[in-house]
Amino acid sequence: MSPFDYLTVLVSIVIGLAIANVLTRLSVVITARERVDFYWPPLAWAIWLFFVAVQHWWAQWSVRHTREWNFGTF
């Protein structure tokens, strides 16, 4: 296995946990909508974070042919 494979697994787990956390918190707000006042900036922030996490995961694929890995490359 290449270093990319190891890093992809680690990053995918972390990003998957981030996406699960955002979606869980959104579901809590949706189910408690009678008790929670709606304010659009936190909802927009949560949606933006979801798309940033997905974009970061997708962008990792572009570095799959990198031979030398260091923190700056990652």
Described by the principal axes of the CA atoms, the overall outline is elongated
Report the major sheet.
none
Helix vs. strand class: mainly alpha
Fraction in helix: 55-70%
Extended strand count: 0
Question: How would you describe the overall organization of this protein?
Answer:
The protein is an all-alpha fold and 74 residues long. It has one domain (3-63). It has helices at 3-31, 40-59.
Structure, briefly:
The chain is an all-alpha fold and 74 residues long.
Write the layout of secondary structure elements.
Blueprint: H1 3-31, H2 40-59
Essential attributes:
74 residues, mainly alpha
